[in-house]
Amino acid sequence: MTVSTTFSRRRRVGMTGEVAKVIRLAFAAARITTLFGLEGALQAALRADLCLRGWHWVDAHQAATDIVEGARSLLGAKRPDWYEGQPEYVIAEGVLIECTHCKRCHGPLPEESRKYCSALCQYADHKALAVMRAASADQAADMAVRATRSWK
């Protein structure tokens, strides 16, 4: 980064505090359901503003990311892990999402099954998840897009 595309520590701390305030107010007003609800929009807006001020995209992206991450840290927001983001995870104490169709093929579930209609569907789903977890971010995104297209 050049001198013209950096913030002073004081300016960065001030911007981080303002972004945290926006997130806190939106959350308190129930405009967002989590402290991560405005993360993408705020980062994009900050990045766009910096680019319009003459910053290179990469520098603007890094600065916007740092500011939003700092705001999240100020608010004490902890990102849930992958497992907590899955539908099977407990939504509220003692309440689970009821499944009526196979997670893999979307066929009706037999009464004794909770997720998969057969051992084959279970194996195929576990194998696909293992491949996705081992993939890079770009590879995982490509796999997700292909899977979405195959559902149509």
Describe the structure.
The termini are far apart. The relative contact order is 0.08. Helices cover 55% and strands 0% of the residues. It has helices at 9-28, 39-52, 57-75, 119-134, 137-151. It is built from 5 helices and no strands. The protein is mostly helical and 152 residues long. The longest helix is centred in the first third of the chain and has 20 residues, at 9-28. Helix 1 (9-28) packs across helix 3 and helix 2 (39-52) packs antiparallel against helix 3 (57-75).
Q: Which segments are poorly predicted (pLDDT under 50) over 5 or more consecutive residues?
A: none
Biggest pleated sheet: none
Distance between the termini: 45 Å
Helix content: 55-70%
Please provide the ordered H/E string of secondary-structure elements: HHHHH
DSSP strand count: 0
Class by SSE composition: mainly alpha
Count of DSSP helices? 5
Briefly say what this structure is:
The protein is mainly α and 152 residues long. It is built from five helices and no strands. The radius of gyration is 21 Å and the shape is elongated.
Name the descriptors.
single chain, 152 residues, mainly alpha, 5 helices, 55% helix, elongated
Helices and strands in order:
Blueprint: H1 9-28, H2 39-52, H3 57-75, H4 119-134, H5 137-151
Helix pairs in contact: 1-3, 2-3
